[in-house]
Model the fold of this input.
Amino acid sequence: MQQSDRIYLDHAATSWPKPEAVYAAVDRYQRELGAPAGRGVYAEALAVHDRVEQARTGIARLIGARDPRQVIFCYSGTDALNQAILGAVRDGTHLITTAVEHNSVLRPLRALEDAGRIAVTRVGCDAQGCVDPADIEQAWLANTQWVVVTHASNVTGAIQPIHEIARIAHRRGGLLLVDAAQTLGEVPLNVAELEIDLLAAPGHKGLLGPLGTGVLYLRPELALEPLRRGGTGSRSQLNRQPDELPDRFEAGNLNVPGIFGLAAGVTYLHQRTVERIRADSIALTTRLLTALAGIKGVRLYGPPPGTRRAGIVSMTVEGYDPQELAVLLDTVYRVQARPGLHCAPLMHAALGTLEHGGTLRLSLGCATTAAEVDAAVAAIAAAAG
Done:
């Protein structure tokens, strides 16, 4: 991966730089192939179809899905979450979610709640952003249908006890939808071992693909209603949407240039391995947290270094508004981080940072180096001083 003078620490928003193979794959599609997926029998169209299916197979292998057809291509992580939430919900039911969630979960649920279709309980978290599975069990009602929970907070990096939550949901006859926006591709994740029923994620973060890509995994026996209906290139004699996966949920032309890039990103992950990426992330996050903890005026949020934390560090610096600090770090030191509420207002309310403009978030990716971490720490120390 090429580096630059930018110290890019906003990987929780999108990964950059991408592996060189990602750029090459998008360029090859645009310049040499240019055909839609599943819409032709000429050579280029068949080559496109094969590459799209290779991407699907690579993601299925990455998450431990039994059948690649269980992997649906979407246009973002938000699109995938909306398909899962709006496609699976039954009127008159009760859902459980948490204070840790992103607006991609909170807003679809609020819209359904405002329409009188469902009731929602939002369980809290501790001061580090961790959810207690016992709180989810206590919130369970006779008509609870399922639980929606993020795998890791995009504010504190806290990794939630997904398997325990899944067992509670299944013991009670419910389902579990996981938002893996901050973990897929960066933390080993097996849907069978964790007993996940639905999993949504963007393709442009840990999976290293371009923006405009997303994936949704669903257990094959689940009955979801598609949000879009239209051409799939299959069963064209029918005026109803096909029932077969993945066609049922992939109406209209796929973002093939994005999926080509995504396929290259996933290939890179298999070659480097998520386990190695995770080990490197833990080491760099520990390095960052340890150094920041020694700077006067810096307050850190989230769990201590280790396996319960993704590569995300939120902080405040005494005397600075987060937006002001972010601008200073970029303009003077070229350190790029994300200030604000991070589309997670309930999480910031729980941390006590909602009324103060949120936090400054530093987020690491598989391209982050120790030298970049050290340079960011030096810049923050200079600003704090």
Notes: Residues 135 and 292 are 32 Å apart (CA to CA). The longest strand covers residues 144-150. Residues 43-63 form the longest helix (21 residues).
